[in-house]
Amino acid sequence: MSMRHTMKARRALVAVAITTGLALTVSGCGGGEKEKPDAASSSTSTDKGTEGEGKPKEEAPQAPPENTVLAEVKGGDNITLIVNSAVRDEGGFLTVGGVVQNGKGGFWNPATWRGDEQELSDNAASMAGASLVDRVGKKKYLILRDTEGRCLCTKFTGGFRKDEEKTWYAQFPAPPASTTKVDFQIADMPPATIEISDGE
């Protein structure tokens, strides 16, 4: 009987030892596996951070900033017309923008800037009379307008006080991509040669 008990005790001890060894091995492997994904994820996040910080993002072309002067002309009554941007977009439009400054020394109303076209007669004191001339392509582009004859342009409500300046914009059909320069014209102001940039 004592021999049987001894054998049983030894078997039990061996089983416990094997079980304990296996448990330690499994837990050790499990810990290693947990560490590997952490290391991988940390390196992945580091790589992403590096890509975000180190590699510049590709950005679409943007319109020149407002302080860029493409052209500046002076007309009668000491009026200054500045063109800051001329951006062609994918929709087939060319948007020209800038600043008008009144150096007359008193109030000024740009009534004649609406143009001579009958259709634009209701666009008083606006950029409606503006046009673009492509000298190379020998074409003239008139300002765009809606079905009611309103120009797609700035209207200078209330005119200009002494030394006042106002921003403006005017939209035209875009010249072909091969045309990179046009003359901007309005009323009695001298033509302003401007360079076209491509937007989104």
Question: Which keywords apply here?
Answer:
200 residues; Lipoprotein; disordered N terminus; 26% strand; signal; Immunoglobulin-like; globular
Distance between the termini: 95 Å
Given as residue ranges, the uncertain stretches (5+ residues, pLDDT < 50) are 1-10, 12-37, 39-64
Shape: globular
| Number of helical stretches of at least 4 residues | 1
Record the SSE blueprint:
Layout: H1 2-54, E1 71-75, E2 79-88, E3 93-102, E4 131-134, E5 139-142, E6 165-173, E7 181-185, E8 192-195, E9 197-198
Parallel strand pairs: 2-9
Antiparallel strand pairs: 1-2, 2-3, 3-6, 4-5, 4-7, 7-8
Structural overview:
This protein is α+β, with helices and mostly antiparallel strands and 200 residues long. It has two domains: 58 residues; 128 residues, Immunoglobulin-like. The protein has one helix and nine strands. The strands form two sheets. Strands 1, 2, 3, 6 and 9 form a five-stranded mixed β-sheet that branches. Strands 5-4-7-8 form a four-stranded antiparallel β-sheet, with no helix packed on it. It starts with a helix and ends with a strand. The N terminus is likely disordered. This is Lipoprotein. Keywords: Signal.
